[in-house]
């Protein structure tokens, strides 16, 4: 899950002249040499690789402890590059920033709980209904009913109507809750972009999120959180899941139309399924692949028709 999961989520943060932590330097030069579509695809790949490595950590740590490692690493890195200024913030900015951070914490907690119970592709496909719902709700076109029906058909095919060791109702419930949080995250991200300069809104939210997750993460993880190799993997998950994709997508959004960005992001559930297959050995049934493709097609359709 990234900083820009829907076209308008970070629009205010990408306006020309806004200061960002990655302006200039060799990383920006290297990114400028890659086509923007390539940057988006690399960002998607980075997010799903991070999720794959996080899922492998579940053998040593509970999901809540992995969430803490991921968010804490991201907060430290983002805070170093875009330290939010607390002095002079209005009450509205404080309220939005705190709500943004708490939503980010809950979104990650529920998604990782889903990830511990479902194959990656299935979890991401269900969670993706959140941004899809925001996109459809913002439109008044009748054709959007088709995309809702297509997405609903996909989720129906994912439900464990027959006994399946890879899919559980609890996992589906957590993934659906993550989707609701994702929808709220999108709306709050836009609001934060209007109240915080540059990328400091996301940094503020990640710090709040880390503080909110710390009690449950530290309690469930215990002394295992101090193991160097687990800390190193957690840092890698934070980089892959937050910092790297955020910087790539921010650069891409400066150089490509937002509706094209939204279309490319619609591929995320399919990429998640492929990463789950290649890294975790999660072999999906034909019906599950068909369901994921239904969600991808619904997202693609809603993004395209919203711009016509």
UniProtKB/TrEMBL annotation:
SUPFAM superfamilies: Multidrug resistance efflux transporter EmrE
Compartments it resides in: Cell membrane
Transmembrane region(s): 60-81, 93-112, 118-138, 145-161, 167-188, 200-218, 230-248, 260-280, 286-303
Entry annotated with the keyword Cell membrane: yes
Mode of membrane association: Multi-pass membrane protein
Entry keyword annotation includes Nucleus: no
Biased composition (Acidic residues): 1-10
Pfam families: EamA
Family that this chain belongs to: Belongs to the EamA transporter family.
Full protein name: Inner membrane transporter RhtA
Originating species: Nonomuraea maritima
């Amino acid at each position: 899950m990234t900083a820009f999961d829907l076209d308008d989520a970070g629009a205010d943060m990408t306006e020309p002249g806004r200061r960002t932590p990655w302006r200039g330097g060799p990383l920006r030069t290297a990114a400028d040499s890659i086509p923007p579509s390539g940057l988006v695809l690399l960002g998607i790949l980075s997010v799903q690789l991070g999720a794959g490595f996080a899922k492998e950590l579940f053998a040593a740590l509970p999901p809540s402890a992995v969430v803490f490692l991921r968010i804490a690493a991201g907060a430290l890195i983002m805070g170093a590059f875009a330290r939010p200024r607390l002095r002079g913030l209005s009450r509205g900015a404080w309220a939005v920033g705190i709500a943004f951070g708490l939503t980010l914490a809950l979104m990650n907690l529920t998604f990782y709980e889903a990830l511990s119970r479902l194959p990656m592709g299935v979890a991401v496909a269900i969670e993706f209904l959140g941004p899809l719902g925001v996109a459809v709700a913002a439109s008044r076109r009748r054709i959007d009913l088709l995309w809702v029906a297509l997405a609903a058909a996909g989720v129906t095919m994912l439900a464990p109507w027959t006994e399946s060791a890879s899919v559980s109702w609890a996992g589906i419930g957590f993934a659906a809750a993550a989707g609701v949080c994702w929808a709220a995250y999108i709306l709050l991200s836009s609001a934060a972009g209007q109240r915080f300069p540059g990328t400091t809104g996301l940094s503020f939210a990640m710090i709040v999120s880390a503080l909110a997750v710390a009690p449950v993460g530290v309690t469930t993880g215990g002394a295992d959180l101090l193991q160097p190799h687990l800390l190193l993997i957690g840092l890698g998950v934070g980089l892959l899941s937050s910092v790297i994709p955020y910087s790539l997508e921010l650069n891409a959004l400066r150089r490509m139309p937002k509706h094209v960005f939204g279309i490319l992001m619609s591929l995320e559930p399919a990429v998640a399924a492929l990463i789950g297959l290649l890294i975790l050995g999660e072999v999906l049934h034909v019906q599950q692949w068909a369901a994921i493709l239904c969600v991808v097609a619904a997202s693609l359709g809603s993004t395209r028709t919203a711009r016509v």
